[in-house]
UniProtKB/TrEMBL annotation:
Renumbered residue ranges of the record's region Disordered: 254-437
Domain ABC transporter: 5-237
Stretches with biased composition (Low complexity): 254-264
SUPFAM superfamilies, A to Z: P-loop containing nucleoside triphosphate hydrolases
Stated name of the protein: ATP-binding cassette domain-containing protein
Organism: Allosaccharopolyspora coralli
Length: 437
């Protein structure tokens, strides 16, 4: 088979103060018609590798060749399918419109576009949904649209970055089989990144196992399962079971500390310091101030990410992930974003409702009698309806929930005393209930 993809000495170091090297000196080939799976620990650089191959990121070192041609910009005969179909489809376009969209840029006439879209949608079982909008489809159907859009371009190489990670297990099996069928029918060359060891064995002709960050290849395993695969019998076969064990062992191998890069394993969602500065707070949370084992201010700030180590100190000071948080994280992971996204942009993505309510919560004053209530609480003398002080390090979401509960309790307390009849009736009912029990 001729070589479709030739990656030589590929490396990528992200720009910025820390200059994180995500991929280092990586070399491998993918032959035409082959389906190669890439597995590796979380954060090792799999997505960075795919983006560098597609030239969505400029490689820092090395080169990529697609059927012999040096890749210097995003190649026309290459398509990428990302995990998050919700973000990759245009919600204002019909299914057919989404599939036809990239064909316009490739200069196909209206009739050709229509024919190609109809044919590709039929091949992924969506011919009946051509005039629907993405938001009218299930998650699995939306991912089919994303796959159809990529296939409609008849790419020489299809790159897939955890394409089935966002769907349920049953849909995942269906989409895996769809990929195998389409690949057989169209002889597409596929390079697929997955977290799922079983998926890599089920789909791949070959598996590349990557090391922790910066990614390098630790093993290359041929998958001797033939082209015809079945979700039940293949997964039960001896070869399958042996291979999945082999991949799992390779992924588990601890890296000796001496070999581990200094910046390896840095959590991707760890928030930079500007994240908290952007919220107008550089203060040490009170709980951390009071604790003798609390880390210094900078550590507390850094540990506020959702991926921060789960220690009791972090628990008491870290804010839970809000939609705004995840929007920030997601935005920072954008394929074209090496630089942090501004908070305004992240708020926009989080939606006006979210950011408005977050702002409102931030502007709410603390209870005036906070210290008195805190003292009462310590004494055990706080009544159930007394306004409670905000616990140190309490998140905005938790505060909103607590305040709603307080309001409800206050409303209950203001209700008129129940009449003697009502009390008797109540008592009778509860006695009846107790008796039945
Ligand atoms: N835009 C960026 N700027 C700086 N560092 C980044 C950026 N994107 C990713 N990284 C870092 O590069 C490393 C590799 O990230 P990448 O997303 O490629 O890993 P991955 O193997 O795909 O992760 P996962 O399996 O969790 O999806 C991580 O340490 C990550 O924090």
């Amino acid at each position: 088979m001729p070589t479709m993809l030739d990656v030589t000495g590929l490396g990528h170091t992200y720009a910025g103060a820390n200059g994180h090297t995500a991929v280092s000196d990586l070399s491998f080939r993918v032959e035409a018609g082959e389906l190669t799976c890439i597995v590796g620990p979380s954060g090792c650089g799999k997505s960075t590798l795919l983006r560098a191959i597609a030239h969505l990121l400029e490689p820092t070192t090395g080169e990529v060749r697609l059927h012999g041609d040096l890749v210097t910009s995003v190649p026309e005969d290459l398509a990428v399918v990302f995990q998050d179909y919700g973000r990759s489809l245009f919600p204002w376009m019909t299914v057919r419109g989404n599939v036809e969209f990239p064909l316009r840029a490739r200069g196909l006439s209206r009739t050709e576009r229509r024919e190609r879209a109809t044919e590709t949608l039929a091949s992924v079982g969506l011919d009946a949904s051509a005039t629907k909008y993405p938001w009218q489809l299930s998650g699995g159907m939306q991912q089919r649209v994303a796959i159809a859009r990529a296939l409609a371009c008849r790419p020489a190489l299809l790159l897939m970055d955890e394409p089935f990670a966002s769907v349920d297990a049953q849909t995942r099996f269906e989409l895996e089989d769809l990929l195998l069928r389409v690949r057989r029918e169209q002889d597409t060359t596929v390079l697929l990144v997955t977290h799922d060891i079983d998926e890599s064995v089920y789909l791949g002709d070959r598996i590349l196992v990557l090391s922790t960050s910066p990614a390098s290849i630790v093993a290359e395993l041929p998958v001797d399962l033939g082209r015809e695969r079945d979700q039940i019998s293949t997964r039960e076969s001896e070869t399958f079971v042996h291979l999945r064990g082999e991949v799992a062992r390779l992924l588990r191998q601890p890296i000796p500390a001496a070999e581990a890069p200094a910046d390896a394993g840095e959590p991707r969602t760890r928030r930079p310091r500007w994240w908290r500065w952007g919220r107008g707070s550089t203060e040490i949370p009170p709980a951390a101030e009071q604790r003798s084992d609390a880390p210094p201010a900078e550590d507390v700030t850094a540990a506020s990410g959702s991926d921060a180590p789960e220690e009791s100190t972090a628990d008491s000071t870290a804010e839970p992930e809000t939609s705004e948080d995840s929007a920030t994280t997601r935005a920072a992971e954008s394929p074209v974003a090496d630089e942090p996204i501004s908070e305004e942009a992240a708020s926009e993505e989080a939606g006006p409702e979210d950011s408005a309510s977050e702002r409102a919560a931030a502007e709410e004053p603390e209870p005036a009698d906070a210290s008195a209530t805190e003292q009462a609480s310590e004494d055990g003398s706080t009544s159930e309806t007394a306004p409670a002080v905000a616990p140190p390090g309490e998140s905005k979401r938790a505060r909103r929930r607590r305040q709603a509960q307080e309001t409800a309790r206050a409303a209950e307390a203001e209700q008129p005393e129940s009449t003697p009849e009502a009390s008797t009736e109540d008592t009778g009912k509860s006695e009846g209930t107790a008796r039945r029990a």
